[in-house]
Design brief:
By secondary structure, the protein is mainly alpha-helical. It is about 70% helix and about 0% strand.
């Protein structure tokens, strides 16, 4: 077991290296950059219309070396080359691309993510500030979707083809088809003072007087604020898991060992939860890391925007728009790291549910 865990942890190193390398190369050819953005603002231009930032090389590098930055940056016309050179030095673009990449790897190994280009704050502090919001949304959405999908899927499998199965399938499909942001707007209109009831707050994760509340009051205030965002995220999240649970249970119920257990006189409940449940839940457990990571990484951007929740999704989007590369790469690194460790935890959960599984003997 320990050897398997150690091997998986060591395999994370080349995986992270590949993710960062591909992303870094793509960024070199992406339109715009922090230097271009500042130059565009100085010239009163649209930052998105500026030229690419080339990582060095070719005619652009030769022109820059000669002091002519107009061939490298579209907004550089008429500006002092010394000023542009200072901007490049400030953002670290005075070094070759390969040197900046390996310096980034060295710093990231020590969890040193540098400072934001445009927020004038350490990147790690920005991430720590936004992390509770994203964890809250991702964790509660995943737990709620599983709490709904597992019992519902089991009930649908037991009553396969019944009226209950047909109607719940229709409702689940309709819920899955409704976009989460549209449902969020509907919740605001109904329950956040839009046109009907003022039951839940419209923005924020906590109230302004949160620090002054008692422990029970803080818990109540937190869940009061998180109810609508989590409900909006959960609407379409449990549909896939519900049908996955149902189909998994149907496959197990039709197997020979279930028929044998029934012939021995075991109750239906004992057969279902004593024998079928463990085997059927394997594939459902396998989907947990993906569900949590998807909700944590990318599923909350629109919800964060609608409910004014300042989380990692909104931070990542704004950093991409502003070409704030230290924040972009730090978010990517941390999210990839979380995803890899969650997948490892999923394999360990497999072994906890079914001790017959032993990943340590699996061939690499």
């Amino acid at each position: 077991m320990l050897a398997y865990v150690a091997r998986r942890v060591l395999l994370m190193i080349p995986t992270l290296f590949g993710i960062l390398l591909i992303s870094f190369v793509i960024v070199q050819f992406a339109p715009g950059g922090p230097v271009e953005r500042i130059l565009a603002q100085l010239q009163g231009l649209d930052a998105g219309a500026t030229a690419n930032f080339s990582g060095g090389g070719g005619a652009a590098e030769s022109a820059a070396a000669a002091g002519d930055f107009s061939a490298k940056y579209r907004g550089a016309q008429g500006l002092d080359p010394k000023f542009i050179a200072e901007l490049e030095k400030q953002f670290g673009f005075d070094k070759p691309a390969y040197e900046r990449f390996f310096m980034m790897l060295k710093n990231y190994a020590l969890f040193d993510f540098g400072r934001s280009y445009f927020r004038d704050a350490p990147v790690i502090d920005l991430i720590k500030e936004k992390l509770p919001v994203s964890i809250s949304l991702g964790l509660w959405m995943t737990l709620m979707s599983y709490a709904i999908s597992i019992p519902l899927g089991v009930r649908k499998a037991v009553s396969d083809g019944s009226r209950f199965d047909v109607w719940t399938s229709a409702l689940v499909i309709v819920g899955y088809a409704i976009p989460g942001f549209l449902f969020a707007i509907l919740l605001i209109v109904l329950f956040a003072g839009g046109s009907f009831w003022q039951i839940f707050p419209l923005r924020g994760l906590t109230s302004e007087n949160f620090d002054q509340l008692s422990l029970v009051g803080k818990v109540r205030d937190y869940f009061w604020h998180i109810t609508l965002p989590v409900a909006a995220l959960t609407l379409g999240a449990f549909a896939t898991q519900t049908f996955l649970t149902k189909n998994s249970f149907l496959d197990e119920i039709r197997k020979q060992y279930v028929l044998t257990a029934r012939m021995k006189g075991l109750t239906e409940r004992r057969v279902l939860y004593g024998h079928v449940f463990r085997n059927a839940m394997m594939i459902v457990v396998a989907g947990f890391p993906g569900a949590f990571v998807a909700a944590f990484l990318s599923g909350s951007l629109l919800i964060e925007t609608i409910f004014s929740l300042d989380g990692l999704g909104l931070l990542s989007f704004e950093s991409i728009v502003n070409r704030d590369y230290p924040v972009v790469f730090a978010n990517l690194y941390i999210m990839a790291l979380i995803g890899l460790f969650v997948n490892l935890a999923s394999d360990l959960t497999y072994m906890w549910i079914d001790p017959r599984i032993d990943f340590s003997t699996r061939e690499a």
